[in-house]
């Protein structure tokens, strides 16, 4: 591994904002079990969760638009400017959910407010992923990029952990009636305020050298669809390699708590604690796996994930559906998340390494957002649909099938570890033979 230093200020600056972004994004899902009844009429509990899951999925379908608009913005105005804009949008959307009126007060208008807020969140996150991925990748020397960029999922998971941690605190300090009545609004207020603070933090970040170099040399064609189409093979590759990873990730993260509660029959508090502990260990694994990819390459980790997810999903999810306590749930959840680490720890850097600087943010943002809209955002809804239809195991095979498609891509794609992201790196690459 290269002895180049990791720029911790840049990593921290990007990660803290990313953490707040994803806290706001995931807290909707983790608190849905409490506010579902607030926005829909009385009925079957699974049906209410289906309604809130559908609204959760709506946000994903806004992500391609956010990926296009904010990816273009990041390529034309800079990574720093895009990071600042995305966290501003997220703060506004969290505040909107916090003040949304209930069904009892205004009928379905409250649900409409949720939809609008999720659309804003989708727009924001659609650009956040790419801006963060490109910033962390470009700001780090070659040979440490896998390690540094892994903090994107460290921060994403940290955001979810903060949300789950707050949920545990509220569960133990408030009655179920109070949580369902007004307590679920608290995390959205916290998210809105935290995002406002991060807005000022991100304004102090420095722009990346790779972007500054590109900006000095050309101002035409940066971040355009025409430029992206010139790299359509790479764009299609991003969609295909994301497919299996995003479905598996949302299965073992956002859907896991509901699955343990609805199917395994664990108490909501126990299911939440299982998710919290498993995700904490998962978060700690990301830099280790990212650093490993700097030594052995990106493809070995992706291939390991693909095989593990394709073969292991059905038995793991079946076993999780029958767990009877905290210990069994934690062990099985960890096995799934360890497999997923082969994808999450490096997927951001792999995508960024596929594209040249002038279209890197858009190249990462739009194809990734499309893949998430089609597969990641619908994963929870598909899972609940299978359950409601009485064939819950069908979802497990669906996850395995998506992983199988991505595995084919992992086996055939080129290694990206030694890709040069700037002309300075290209000059160094030409003078030093690439590692085998």
Q: Low-confidence segments, ≥5 residues, pLDDT <50?
A: none
Given the C-alpha coordinates, what overall shape results?
globular
Derived structural class:
mainly alpha
CATH class (first level) name: Mainly Alpha
Binned, the helix content reads over 70%
Count of DSSP-assigned helices = 21
Written as H for each helix and E for each strand, in order along the chain, the element string is HHHHHHHHHHHHHHHHHHHHH
- Report the span from N to C terminus: 13 Å
Determine the mean pLDDT: 85
CATH architecture: Up-down Bundle
Q: What does the radius of gyration come to?
A: 21 Å
Quaternary organization:
single chain
Strand content: under 5%
CATH superfamily label: MFS general substrate transporter like domains
Task: Give a brief rundown of this model.
With 436 residues, the chain is mostly helical. It is built from 21 helices and no strands. The mean pLDDT is 85.
Walkthrough of the structure:
With 436 residues, this protein is an all-alpha fold. The protein has one domain (8-204, 224-419): Up-down Bundle (Growth Hormone, Chain: A), CATH 1.20.1250.20. The protein is 80% helix and 0% strand. The protein contains 21 helices and no strands. The two termini are 13 Å apart. 56% of the residues are buried. The mean pLDDT is 85.
Key terms for this structure?
about 425 residues; mainly alpha; Growth Hormone, Chain: A; about 80% helix; about 0% strand; globular
């Amino acid at each position: 591994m290269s002895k180049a230093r990791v720029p911790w200020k840049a990593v921290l600056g990007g990660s803290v904002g990313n953490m707040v972004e994803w806290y706001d994004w995931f807290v909707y899902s983790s608190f849905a079990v409490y506010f579902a009844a607030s926005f829909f009429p009385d009925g079957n509990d699974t049906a209410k969760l289906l309604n809130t899951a559908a609204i959760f999925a709506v946000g994903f379908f806004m992500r391609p638009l956010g990926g296009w608009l904010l990816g273009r913005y990041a390529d034309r105005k800079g990574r720093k400017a895009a990071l600042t804009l995305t966290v501003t949008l997220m703060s506004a959307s969290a505040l909107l959910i916090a003040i949304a009126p209930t069904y009892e007060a205004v009928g379905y208008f409250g649900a409409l407010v949720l939809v609008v807020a999720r659309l804003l969140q989708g727009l924001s996150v659609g650009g956040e992923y790419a801006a963060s991925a490109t910033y962390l990748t470009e700001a780090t020397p070659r040979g440490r990029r896998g390690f540094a960029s892994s903090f994107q999922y460290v921060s994403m998971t940290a955001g979810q952990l903060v949300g789950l941690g707050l949920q545990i605190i509220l569960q133990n300090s408030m009655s179920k009636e109070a949580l369902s009545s007004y307590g679920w609004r608290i995390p959205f207020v916290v998210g809105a305020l935290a995002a406002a603070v991060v807005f000022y933090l991100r304004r102090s970040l420095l722009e990346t050298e790779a972007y500054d170099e590109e900006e000095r040399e050309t101002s035409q064609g940066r971040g355009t669809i025409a430029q992206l189409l010139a790299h359509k093979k790479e764009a299609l590759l991003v969609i295909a390699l994301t497919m299996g990873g995003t479905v598996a990730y949302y299965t073992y993260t956002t859907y896991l708590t509901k699955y343990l509660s609805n199917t395994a029959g664990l108490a909501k508090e126990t299911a939440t604690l299982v998710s919290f502990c498993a995700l904490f260990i998962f978060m700690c694994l990301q830099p280790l796996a990212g650093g490993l990819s700097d030594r052995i390459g990106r493809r070995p980790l992706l291939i390991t994930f693909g095989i593990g997810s394709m073969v292991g999903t059905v038995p793991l999810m079946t076993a999780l559906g029958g767990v009877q306590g905290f210990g069994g749930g934690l062990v099985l959840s960890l096995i799934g998340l360890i497999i997923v680490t082969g994808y999450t720890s490096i997927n951001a850097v792999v995508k960024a390494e596929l594209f040249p600087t002038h279209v890197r943010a858009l190249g990462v943002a739009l194809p990734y957002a499309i893949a998430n809209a089609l597969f990641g955002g619908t994963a929870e809804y598909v899972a609940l649909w299978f359950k409601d239809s009485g064939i819950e195991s069908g979802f497990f095979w669906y996850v395995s099938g998506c992983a199988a498609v991505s595995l084919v891509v992992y086996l055939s794609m080129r290694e990206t570890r030694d890709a040069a992201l700037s002309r300075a790196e290209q000059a160094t690459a030409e003078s030093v033979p690439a590692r085998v």
